Amino acid sequence: MKIHYESNTIEELTSKIKSIDAFKGICSPMIKTEKGYIPDFQSRYFTEDFPFGLCIIKGFCYIADVNTPYIDEVLKWYEKISYQEYFTETGFNGKDLENTAVPQMFGIKTKQDVYNFYRS
């Protein structure tokens, strides 16, 4: 991400992403309730971006042995609101990972597996 977005700090990355025209005007889907607005947890931002976005990133980080405390925190929050299980007491190996596109679901479990998969 640092190379792709040409950013070396969190602040630079935030500024860069905020400046991308394609991202402007994308609102978070909300539902109006009697008490105000709440996120629409059935929107694709939740039903697709977590299992087919953040879980994939976490899967590659797991293979590379990269700690992801903030990703873990966000995914654990999502587990609570979506009733999914991505983590167990022993790690990133919950029963609902089979419904995602993590590399492990495709037999990619080591750095060498990643290399072999993308080499071809």
Layout of secondary structure:
Elements (H helix, E strand, L loop, with lengths): L9 H9 L11 E4 L2 E4 L4 H4 L2 H14 L5 H14 L28 H9 L1
Antiparallel strand pairs: 1-2
Helix pairs in contact: 3-4
Structure summarized in a few sentences:
With 120 residues, the protein is mostly helical. The chain has helices spanning 10-18, 44-47, 50-63, 69-82, 111-119; strands at 30-33, 36-39. The protein is built from 5 helices and 2 strands, in the order αββαααα.
What is the helix fraction of residues, given as a range? 40-55%
Strand content: 5-15%
Tell me the CATH topology of the domain at 41-119: N-(1-d-carboxylethyl)-l-norvaline Dehydrogenase, domain 2
CATH architecture of the domain at 41-119: Orthogonal Bundle
Mean pLDDT across all residues, rounded?
92
Categorize the overall geometry. Answer: globular
CATH class of the domain at 41-119: Mainly Alpha
What is the string of helix and strand elements? HEEHHHH
Instruction: Quickly count the helices.
Output: 5
Low-confidence stretches: none
Tell me the structural class: mainly alpha
CATH superfamily of the domain at 41-119: N-(1-d-carboxylethyl)-l-norvaline Dehydrogenase, domain 2
Strand order of the largest sheet: 1-2
Distance between the termini: 23 Å
Radius of gyration: 17 Å
